Amino acid sequence: MAADPREPSLESRTFDTVLVLDFGAQYAQVIARRVRECHVYSEIVPGETPAAELLARRPVGIILSGGPKSVYAGHAPRPDPAIFDAGVPILGICYGQQLIAQALGGEVANTGIAEFGRTALDVTEPGALLAGQPVSQTVWMSHNDAVVRPPEGARVLAATRHSPAAAFEDPVRGVYGVQYHPEVSHTPRGLDVFEAFLTATGARRTWTSHSVIEAAVADIRAQVGDGAVLCGLSGGVDSAVAAALVAEAVGEQLTCVFVDHGLLRHDEATQVEEAFGASSSTRLVTVDAAARFLDRLAGVTDPEEKRKRIGTEFIRVFEEAARAHAGDAAFLVQGTLYPDVIESGHGSAATIKSHHNVGGLPEDMEFELVEPLRWLFKDEVRRVGEELGLPREIVWRQPFPGPGLAVRVIGEVSAERLALLRAADRILLDELRRAGLDRATAGPDAGDTDFVWQSFAVLPTIRSVGVQGDERTYGHPVILRAVTSEDAMTADFARIDYDVLERIAGRIINEVPGINRVAYDVTSKPPGTIEWE
Questions:
Q1: In 3D, which of 273, 234, 257, 271 has the Cα closest to residue 402?
Q2: Splitting the chain (533 residues) into consecutive groups of 10 residues, what average pLDDT does each group show?
């Protein structure tokens, strides 16, 4: 799941860049985020990208990710060996460490005992990579093979019971490797590993919210010139921050269009108009398109088809709005994020789901896209929003998919099914706010880990038998979904207090006629996705 290296971003040309070569790792996105937390720009590219393409990006460092294969497997992915002679510092993680050892004359073997989960690590010689770290610590392992002998010239820094070279380095050659996963939170001193590697690269620590804004504003001005610009504004944090960046860059050239597609949450259209309407400096046009979206979704049950039809219809509405309200604007602003690009399948990446604003766009649309957030993770977008001075209820609002409730109504979408789901969803959000679990309504000093990242109800196609008022019912169940996350690339189900869940379920069943059962989804991501469709 990696971005196409042939499509360099402005950031990769403006900031020192560390490229993460993805060999099918579950946590490749987390590696990139950890590097960015150290204020260095990082981007994910396919692991087998030719060295010439990688070096054309002028990276200050390269990280080889983990992966599910053995280095001895017949079709095991490998980096272009030319990267090892390019003079660019390289850090290998798990499978990536094994690739370095194998390529440079070390030895990788199956020791007969795999290591998975928390593992005791003994630091024998800290070197540069583990300097200042405890001699005994806990790390997160996930491997079968292990490096049993490092490359010639490299020294072993640490070992576990079954990994005799759990960390090694050769600063002269510029190669570093760890068998464990420093990117995950289960490795408490993992961020220090990235800090040490970045110090070895000499990377400038210039990736900050302020510098991102400066780069994005310059990029927008260079792209649109004095042309008219249209922004699809949903009211969520992504489109709001994108609109604020474009407004900062081109001012009155921007017109924002809010499309009420009938797939919104309870009272959401009113909230958006109040936040971005007359009291805002942003010019806002509202388009009521609920009927046409429902018509486009009639009879559609496949989630990919839903997303593509919704994406196409959005573009058609925006094209009409441009002609009517924005002087035939040639540019369309979208709040596309880096995870949207990754999950939609990009270059050699696997498609997890086609986001309506990436894989769902029509080929014949009349706009040139302006996507100032395309290379940002969600947490970075929030920090940019705060830097731009957006209201905290917008910055910390829960993510909401562009296709709206259409991907939370499983199967065919109808006005009746939307009404049921909307009512149940309103109760869920209301009770989470009451319980103090909604970040947008908490105080500015509250810790991020105390809150639900995203929560919603799902309406499946099945019905269930129940009893209400001593009578048999045959109604709809709803499934509640609430997760905690940092960036939506990985997520865990929220451990909501049972009393809160009971109160939510009781209210839904009592207040929403037609719903007679409530279930709670305890699936993490992976293996599931956050949304059901």
A1: 234
A2: 44 80 87 95 94 95 93 90 96 96 92 85 95 94 90 94 94 96 92 97 95 93 93 85 92 91 90 70 86 95 93 89 84 88 52 45 81 91 91 83 92 95 96 89 58 94 85 91 82 94 97 95 90 91
pTM for the complete prediction?
0.76
Please give the Cα distance from 359 to 482 (Å, whole number).
Answer: 26
Distance CA 336, CA 3 (A): 14
Cα–Cα distances in angstroms (integers) from residue 285 to residues 128, 272, 278, 311, 393, in the given order: 57, 11, 11, 19, 21
pLDDT value of position 394: 82
Give, to the nearest 10 degrees, the angle between helix 378-387 and helix 237-250: 50
Contacts of 524 (CB under 8 A, 6+ apart): 483, 490, 491, 492, 493
**Helices 209-224 & 237-250, crossing angle to 10 degrees?**
60
pLDDT at 357: 45
Among candidates 140, 35, 38, which has minimal Cα distance to 91?
Answer: 35
Q: How many helices (H) and strands (E) does the chain have?
A: 15, 19
Distance CA 127, CA 178 (A): 13
Cα 206 to Cα 35: distance, rounded to the nearest angstrom? 12
Residues with Cβ within 8 Å of 305's Cβ and at least 6 positions away in sequence, in order, are none
Task: Establish how many alpha carbons lie within 13 A of residue 252's alpha carbon, considering only the half-sphere containing its beta carbon.
Answer: 0
Instruction: Give how far Cα 219 sits from Cα of 80, 211, 213, 286, 340, Å.
Output: 32, 12, 10, 28, 20
**Count of CB atoms within 10 A of residue 155's CB?**
14
- State both tokens at 140: 């997160």
> Measuring CA to CA, how many Å separate 152 from each of 104, 123, 127, 175, 377?
8, 20, 16, 11, 39
d(CA 214, CA 212): 5
Active centre residues (catalytic)? 94, 181, 183
Q: Rounded distance, CA 417 to CA 414, Å?
A: 5
A 10 A CB-CB count for 288 gives: 12
The C-alpha atoms of residue 249 and residue 256 are separated, in whole angstroms, by 14
Tally the C-alpha atoms within 13 A of residue 474's C-alpha that lie toward its C-beta: 0
Closest to 147 (Cα-Cα) out of 55, 251, 71: 71
Two tokens at 494? 């929220």
d(CA 424, CA 439): 20
> At 31, which helix (H) or strand (E)?
helix 28-37
- Cis-peptide, bond into residue 46, ω within 30° of zero: no
CA distance readout (Å), 54 to 39, 57, 194, 200, 241 = 21, 6, 20, 19, 31
